[in-house]
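Please predict the structure of the following assembly.
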Amino acid sequence: MDRATLATLVKTHQAELHRYLRYLGADRSAADDLVQETFLAAFQSSHAPLPTHPRAGAAWLRGIARNLFLRHCRKQARTRVRANSQLVEQAEATWNSEFLRDGDGFDYVEALRRCLESLSERQRHVLDLRYESKTPRATMAQRLEMTENGVKSLLRRIRARLADCVRKRLTLET
Amino acid sequence: MNDPIDRLIDVLLCEELGGETPPDLVGRILARTRRRRRLRWGLAAAAAAALVAVGLWALLPGQYPKPTATGAFTVDTDSLQRGAILRTADQSADLGLGGYATVHVEPQSTVRIEGRERAEGVFLTRGGVACEVDSNVGTFAVRTELGTVRSMGTRFTVRLLKEKGDEEMMTRRMWVQVAVGVVVASGAWGNVALAAGQEARLPARAPKIPKTMITLSHVDETAEGRKSIGGSGHAVDFQVKDGAVWVEAIQVFATRYGAPQAPKEDFHIYVLDANKRVLADVPFPYASVERGELRWYTLRTPSVEVTPGFSVALAFNPARTKGVFLGYDDSVELSHSHTGLPNAGFREVTEKHDWMVRVVTSKKPTGKKGIIRLADRKAAEANLDLPPCVVKTEPENRATDVDPTLAEIKVTYDRPMAVGRNYSWIIHQAIGTYPGDKNGPEPRWENGGKTCVLSVKLKPDTLYAVGVNSFRHTGFHDPKGGVGVPYIWVFKTGKKKGGADF
């Protein structure tokens, strides 16, 4: 693989790989590093799929990223992320069946955007506090007059509702 | 990471609401490849001396492996060497070349040993060969009079075929099947890349046009230029000759551009009446047109009955990375050509040239790919005030004992619909199981855009329910935007039949 091909490969797949590593549990800085390591490993490999098969290329890169992520977790003994190969394989299966759905995940993100519009005002406010303002959970609990565990459960319920809404939207229109 | 779905939504919300966009790492990664290269430079320099020594040893005369052969064969020279012709009779033979390529010569085959060191090859003049090439050692090619199949680190088979019924140039074709890796087959007909599991007969055979058919054309055999029109299409007017009112095929002088692998989408040929209303919308896979030099392609259509004056329009939907160049002939006295598409209108071309499109017509419909009659069109037009309706399903509604091995189900509308990804197959879990195969190919259109085909995976003794369109999902619609009336049908598969498993 030459450097021009690598540059094209990076431009095409870096966003999806970053998202994938964040999904596996890597924090932002670890995801940045692991994306770089993934492409450097790909650069040195002689088994790169043809650029004409972007899906095969994406799956191949995800495989490299997965292995690097597992190695990263083993090195970081005190990491908050507990990952083993079985859990990561399950996560990969969910990524393929739920998110990609034989595509590039665009439909899933679009459906999520539409589902966000269907949330109640309070639910949207909670999400904005957590994701947009990045308010700490303790502060959120104070403002919402709830316990911290209550906030945690509420956020999980809203995410579950969004996941359910996305699934319905995508499975109804095959 | 206890719940992957929760984690997925969490990450997407961080991006959507928190603006956590992934950073652009191109510069950083490329810089690190440079650093790694510098680090490796020292090691490489140390290893270089050893490599040079090994290389010199390998290049010494007599060290490169000579061709070897086992099995039942004859050669026309005293020894097996480059240029020798190897023939097999009723048994096969194995030919070893360069120590990295093994050629299994099938019975009744003839090959000539060609190539050079680390670029081995054979010329196949009869029969077939199955090749196995070690990776990272050298290249390998099988040449035939029809083209060349090149590979590096693959397993593939090339076989010469004789096919009856074609013209002289087309009597011989080449069959290529790839077991492992990728090969590139090339010839005067263009280039085709084949990956593991794929096979192809090359060159693609042009359908034979019977002499009784009449070819309508405004152009000669040479193109003065070629054009691809982004956001629009090409159209040419024709007049029916000698009462041959059935369009059977369209010929285009064209070439595809873009990636070697044709995009997995269709281009469309529209047959239009004198008022440029669509009589038929026929999709063709993009792979129907190959890359390389401009040449004539014959594209068989359903038998379409046309008015005395009619037009043919082509919509290739080109983009920067894929499209089709259509040749044009500027030696015509009068232009019959337009730019545009059925839904967007047409404009006469400003230059005096004609798109290189020919139409093959006949007096009687052959019906090999279906028949589209003017009467059908008129009947459909009479119902234009009504929205598109389902007129047929396969299997039929309420069918029982449906074969569980059935791989496709079909829905047919009363008029040509907007093809492409314009469909909404609906799940009705409360009524029955949804039959769609999630891992199957995407739904496709046939019968001039009237019939949509869905891949299914069925189980024995199961009730299935499937719908097209719903209150919220209106993917099925005609080219004018008329939404198809929602329709649900049910069917039940038969019980599993007993029998030996072979």
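Chain B touches chain A through 50 residues (CB under 8 Å). Confidence is low (pLDDT under 50) at residues 165-170, 498-502 of chain B.
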